[in-house]
């Protein structure tokens, strides 16, 4: 009998082959550039770009120690993460429904969430006595990550319940971090 993890992995691979496709190249207006084709940016490309943009902020969060992890010090970094993710949410919301062109968009979404949540959890864990006042600082992170998840999954359409189940299974240990940081909006959206 297969374990839940094996079945989930099999389902992810099966699903990714169903939605996998090569993005269609769009011709750029001849008046702009002659003879050059531009590949449409996929949701996966947008999420990978977001992950790259979040790396410096993740490094800043990981640098906090028990002495330096105060709400006044952590809040600006969380604000930067929040605004960076919100910019991507705005970009994704401008895309038409059904814009998922294949690829591993759930994997890219999971990577982005890990980049934002793992350092946040590290700060909460090193904060020691400040943990009680540090955890509320991450609340906006839960709201903007929930908006990101909603935007990405909204671009797929009809099979939302199945995708949330797959996403939660891909998140793995991140679900414990989401609960540890009391990210209630994200907890409600994911049903964990």
Automatic annotation (TrEMBL):
Signal peptide coordinates: 1-21
Record-given protein name: Uncharacterized protein
Segments passing through the bilayer: 133-156, 163-190
Source organism per UniProt: Dentipellis fragilis
Keywords, in A-Z order: Membrane, Signal, Transmembrane, Transmembrane helix
Superkingdom of origin organism: Eukaryota
């Amino acid at each position: 009998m297969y374990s839940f993890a094996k079945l989930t992995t099999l389902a992810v691979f099966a699903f990714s082959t169903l939605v996998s496709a090569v993005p269609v190249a769009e011709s750029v207006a001849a008046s702009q550039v002659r003879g050059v084709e531009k590949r449409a940016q996929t949701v996966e490309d947008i999420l990978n770009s977001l992950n790259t943009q979040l790396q410096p902020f993740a490094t800043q969060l990981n640098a906090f120690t028990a002495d330096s992890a105060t709400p006044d010090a952590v809040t600006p970094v969380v604000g930067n993460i929040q605004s960076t993710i919100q910019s991507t949410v705005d970009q994704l919301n401008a895309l038409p429904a059904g814009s998922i062109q294949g690829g591993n968009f759930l994997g890219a979404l999971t990577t982005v969430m890990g980049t934002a949540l793992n350092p946040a959890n590290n700060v909460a864990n090193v904060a020691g006595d400040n943990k009680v006042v540090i955890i509320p600082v991450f609340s906006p992170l839960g709201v903007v990550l929930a908006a990101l998840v909603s935007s990405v999954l909204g671009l797929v359409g009809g099979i939302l319940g199945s995708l949330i189940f797959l996403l939660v299974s891909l998140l793995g240990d991140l679900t414990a971090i989401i609960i540890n940081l009391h990210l209630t909006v994200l907890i409600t959206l994911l049903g964990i």
